What we know:
The complex is a heterodimer.
Chain A: E1 3-7, E2 10-12, E3 18-25, E4 33-39, E5 45-51, E6 58-60, E7 68-73, E8 78-83, E9 92-99, E10 109-110, E11 114-118
Parallel strand pairs in A: 2-11
Antiparallel strand pairs in A: 1-3, 3-8, 4-5, 4-9, 5-6, 7-8, 9-10, 9-11
Chain B: E1 4-7, E2 10-13, E3 19-25, E4 33-38, E5 45-49, E6 53-54, E7 62-67, E8 70-75, E9 85-90, E10 97-98, E11 102-106
Parallel strand pairs in B: 2-11
Antiparallel strand pairs in B: 1-3, 3-8, 4-5, 4-9, 5-6, 7-8, 9-10, 9-11
Amino acid sequence: xVQLLESGAGLVQPGGSLRLSCAATGLIFSNYAMSWVRQAPxxxxxxxxxxxxxxxxxxxxxxxxxxxxxxxxxxKNTLSLQLNSLRAVDTAIYYCAIGDTVxxxxxxxxxxxxxxxxxx
Amino acid sequence: xxxxxxxxxxxxxxxxxxVTITCRASQTISSYLNWYQQKSGKAPKLLIHAASSxxxxxxxxxxxxxxxxxxxxxxxxxxxxxxxxxxxQQSYTTxxxxxxxxxxxxx
Lengths: 120, 107
């Protein structure tokens, strides 16, 4: 059974940083692209970033480009998202999700989400 | 960027009703369209991938159709556990984009 477990939730001041992690089990991790999708309180789903299976290609939404960095460790079966220069609008539940590839695929498995709150 | 729209934004329906939700892309996305169900406080769940392929374990009352720019999610006979918000998502190109969602609640 595929399971994704996010961690790293927290309250951070505007301009601060946070690192989110997602531990994956039940699959050959390096075979799959991984993504982060977020959901602001009471709002819809927003794609944030994706990374290819071997980590060689990364993709970002314009809203986070230059501030967030996605990475993965295929030995530890872990996905990470480094969040810098955080803004109030980044407040959201952050989900990690699995797809076969970055595009032409779907998010077949999701973590339970981890809450990031940016507030002074 | 490819914009996704959904209609209606919300609907009220009764158990046993046939429900149809539409999704439109701002440009052609072939069949790279997925549907998700999200219940309150839970992570989204994949229902349909590649426009019309039912995800393993999803009840057959859910079906998807369409290609190009216009897509449909149909629930043939609404069940109590189907009251939720439904999102479409294009995977044709990055940035990956979701529709704004359709909330299905009890009439």
